[in-house]
Amino acid sequence: MSDVLILGEIKEGSIDTRTLELVSVGKRLAGERGGDACVLILGDAPQGAAAEAASYGPAKVYSVGHPLLKGFQPEFWLAALEQVCKQIKPGVFLMSHSYRGMELGPRLSCRLGARLTTDCIDLAIDPQDGLLLRTKPVSGGNAISVFKCPGEPQMATVRGKVFEPAAAGEAKGEIVEIGVELDASMAKVISLEVVKEEIVALDKADVVVAGGAGLGEEDGFEALEDLRKALSKSFGNVMIGCSRVAVDKGWISSDHQVGLTGTMISPDLYVAVGISGAIQHLVGMVHSKKIIAINTDAGCNMFKVADYGVVEDYGKIIPALVQKLEELS
Ligand SMILES: Cc1cc2nc3c(=O)[nH]c(=O)nc-3n(C[C@H](O)[C@H](O)[C@H](O)COP(=O)(O)OP(=O)(O)OC[C@H]3O[C@@H](n4cnc5c(N)ncnc54)[C@H](O)[C@@H]3O)c2cc1C
């Protein structure tokens, strides 16, 4: 009942970084509750992923294999999760605030009679009663609230990139196989087809260079593209983001939009160019590790959250910045 259970997710054959972030916070929380951090891997052949998860040092990895857990059919995953939770009775159950976590979390909490808090940006244990303190933005990001709920398991989905991922180490977790009973008649989806499309996965970017109304015209994004390319020589995955106004003006597609009705991100570096810093935008990027703002208005909100700021026309700053980066690379 003191253990912290983490739902493992696999991306392109490996444990997803978001799961590793949960492992690192899960270890801390388990320590505070006097229990262990454990990872749960579901799949039709989960052995490889379970072994990989074990190398990140959780106390245990529960490996649940069943032919119907191939791919992701929520009904089968839900039934498996319900059975596993009833069997091992975790004190805390964490999932990523990913598509899977968003799909499974509310439905599972309902089945278990537990209370779920979604999209948490911080977690702690109340030393008085051992309950999970769940911090999340509320009121469209205008405020941050801390929730505490009774009952077990204590459940939360956690936003990506707010915790450092766990690193692989010497200590390997014990792998425990658990059987589940699933029936093909549980399926509500008859066939599942994965459509491959070009997706702008802004939440996976290390650096986001974002433009807003201050670019003045669509061509302003060409200057940002030059900066993106120059930064790509020194940083990993550099992507273009934008404010909603840039989308509304038709300068760029909506999958680049950052904010309340766009993507929530926390990259290592966020460069805000000609973006005023409306609350609906800030809520999507304020947890970036470093923020650089370029804006002609010294009084704009973006400067209040920026680590570094340049009060200047972007048309002068960006080419100079690109040139300097080229010289340094
Ligand atoms: C329900 C709701 C949801 C919303 N969701 C989102 C969301 O998800 N994401 C989002 O972004 N917005 C969202 N919005 C819109 C939001 O309120 C703002 O309108 C929007 O973020 C403003 O975009 P902007 O900063 O690009 O434009 P503006 O507020 O017009 O700011 C432009 C900035 O550019 C600067 N500037 C001008 N010329 C230059 C120059 N040459 N060089 C440098 N700087 C210059 C100006 O000083 C100004 O600060 C939402 C609004 C609502 C009501």
Q: How would you portray this structure in words?
A:
The strands form four sheets. This protein has a seven-stranded parallel sheet, with helices on both faces. By secondary structure, the protein is of the alpha/beta class. The chain is elongated and about 65 Å long. The protein has nine helices and 17 strands. The protein folds into two domains: 183 residues, Rossmann fold; 127 residues, TPP-binding domain (Rossmann fold, 3-Layer(aba) Sandwich), CATH 3.40.50.1220. It binds flavin-adenine dinucleotide. Flavin-adenine dinucleotide (FAD) binds next to helix 6, helix 7, strand 16 and helix 9.
Please supply descriptive tags for the structure shown above.
2 domains, about 325 residues, seven-stranded parallel sheet, Rossmann fold, binds flavin-adenine dinucleotide, elongated, single chain, about 25% strand
